[in-house]
Hints:
The chain is α+β, with helices and mostly antiparallel strands. The protein is built from three helices and ten strands; from the N terminus they run H-H-E-E-E-E-E-E-E-E-E-E-H.
Amino acid sequence: MKPFPFCPRFSRFAPTLGAALLVSGSAWADFVSEASRFQSIGYTLADDQPVPVGFDIEVVDSSIRSVSRVEVGLVLRGVDGVGGFASEMFVSLSQVLDVAGSTELRTANLINGVGISLGDPIGHGYNGWDVTLADDAVGGDIHGATLLDGILAGAFQPDGRVQPADTQRPLSLAVFHGQDGNGLWRLNVADLELGGQMRLESWSLTLSGATAVPESSTWTAIVAVAACAGWNRLRRRGGG
């Protein structure tokens, strides 16, 4: 087995150097989970309001340079005496960034016609939500969460679908990974059908991530150490 050119003279230092690089690689940034940013709204959507209404939280004090987790709190429920119909609602989260003088927009779909599928064009009819949404939430996909009546509560994963009957979920909160924590974060809410009517009571935004972006040279060196260590393991197994 032919070695990598640098491995024979490099291999005896690889464990020590690898450990040093991993330490330096982790020292370039701290991982932080910032306090939740909360906005009380109290806005009643018009019945059949298909054009989303936006509610902004402008973040200017975040220390996060590379987002790795986003959590959204949402309290959206039926108007007293009228009641809501869950599958009529659409909710998304967008981040507007100014990147090198141009605007960059990313969007995750949080709720999109819950319960609607190819076999069920009507979907769920419960009365709203008092939930937190995160990609790693233990409650699973909110699109399939069932409730006969009342307010759905708990921690769920965002819908993420482009169209309500889709099975793929490309528009999860992971669309924000790697982004700066600062920027204009906008919750967009729409009522897509006639029927129930809902009121947005409040929403919140919780960001977690690293306080700096790693230099490419650090990652190149770490990959080189890993490659050399892997080659040495293969050489020992093969007797080379």
